[in-house]
Specification:
Radius of gyration: 18 Å
Distance between the termini: 11 Å
Structural class: alpha/beta
Number of strands: 10
Strand content: 15-25%
Mean pLDDT: 94
Bound molecules: zinc ion
Length: 283
Amino acid sequence: MPAVSLREILQPAFEARYGVGAFNIVNDLTMAAVLDAAVEVKSPVIIQVSVNTVKMWGARLIQQMFAEMASRRPVPATLHLDHCPDMEMIKTCLAAGWNSALFDASSLSYQDNLRLCREVVAFAKKHGAGVEGELEAVRGIEHEVDSDAQEELVPVERCVEFIDSTGIDCFAPAIGTAHGLYKTKPKINFERVEAIVARRRTPIVLHGGTGLSKETFKRLIAAGCAKVNISTMLKITFGDSLKNYLEAKPKEYDPMKLQKAVHTDLLNMAKGFMEIFGSAGKA
Ligand SMILES: [Zn+2]
């Protein structure tokens, strides 16, 4: 079916408390595998793309590939630009027909973030697209902090003000998750998700999904996390799949067979998450 908006995917998920996986694809093979997983388990899906992937392939090619692949599959799918601090890149993608973007102004002051995020929302509206907003930087393995250290959190009331005055479609608060692989068990701030959702019925976005337990996913989704980002696990599956295949068949030079093996492993990885998130059967 033709691509749908981020809101059309997230609103029913938020209301019924299931999560929709947003998988950071890197090329045609990974995009097809994630979409095929959605078809197999009848799940809505978010095809998410990092800035570096856009730089490699170009906004137009990714959008056209997505439009073509999505139109041939009977599940709701949307194309989303992940963590982008570059206003020009966001505008290029949205003007090229992408469905939504995360404007990442977490390094800016609150006032600048607010002002620029409003500009992104206004531009997105003109193009029928949606926007994910955030106020705090999501921690990453490269800046791992002492797990006992208290994070400087934006007060919940300010998050609500940000949601209201920007008009974003979903919000990504800092809740103790991190990008990359967890070295120690993360301390998840479930209460923060509950507090924001109690004040505003806005779908919450969970960053740093790779490595969280099934129970953590389920609790966060029950609290209102409707978009669940999976990036690191896709990269690991991709790499391991290639490695395993070539180790098992060092004389196999047919790229089609190699790609088929990777496709199967990626498909199973994505299906597994869709089952855990409860989105399977919802398309
Ligand atoms: Zn993220």
